[in-house]
Amino acid sequence: MTMRDSILDAAEVRVRGGGFVAMSFRDLASDVGIKSSSVHYHFATKHELGEALVARYTEQFRARLDAIDMSDLDRALADFVAIYANALVLNETICLCAVMGAEAIGLPEHVNERTRAFFRLNIGWLETLLARHGAEASADAASMIVAALEGAMIIASASNDRNLFDQVARAALRCIPREKLDKR
């Protein structure tokens, strides 16, 4: 593992647990056992670090999505929700892009564009899955499900109640019109 990867790992833990704005290069340097100037060597600015962090997170998420078998709708949906569920660890972490999305107003455009790319990836993947199985309004359903899961993580975390996430996830999936879905 490179020092750049170690810095990104430390940054991900800090951002997912406390927010991007609260994270400092000094914190990261302490976390990985280097000087703050060494963090600057790898990432000239905090915003450059944020862009790299979201890009890496998106690629890791893409790899998880690519591993899901889309042939069985219910199984694929369960696997999709499981990725989000695994990102939620009460009192520790939520989805990196949920945090970045919540802080978007104060972030530079290039960081926000990376965050939007994450959401487009997830919505697009889900829309493709739903369309393959004959769902009507698959774009609407995909957007609603992703928004529900991201919001559910924030609310469950703030409420310290994992059941809220599970409840919203189940409700979001029930909103998919099933009467016209193919029965592969």
The ordered string of helix (H) and strand (E) elements is: HHHHHHHHH
Q: What is CATH's topology name?
A: Tetracycline Repressor, domain 2
Total of DSSP H or I helical runs spanning 4+ residues: 9
Arithmetic mean of pLDDT: 93
What is the count of β-strands?
A: 0
Key descriptive features of the protein:
elongated; 9 helices; 72% helix; 184 residues; mainly alpha; Tetracycline Repressor, domain 2
Characterization of this structure:
This protein is mainly α and 184 residues long. It has one domain (3-174): Tetracycline Repressor, domain 2. 72% of the residues lie in helices and 0% in strands. It is built from nine helices and no strands. It has helices at 3-18, 25-32, 36-42, 46-66, 73-87, 96-102, 109-132, 138-159, 162-174. Helix 2 packs across helix 3.
Quick take:
The chain is mostly helical.
Layout of helices and strands, plus pairs?
Layout: H1 3-18, H2 25-32, H3 36-42, H4 46-66, H5 73-87, H6 96-102, H7 109-132, H8 138-159, H9 162-174
Helix pairs in contact: 1-2, 1-6, 2-3, 4-7, 7-8, 8-9
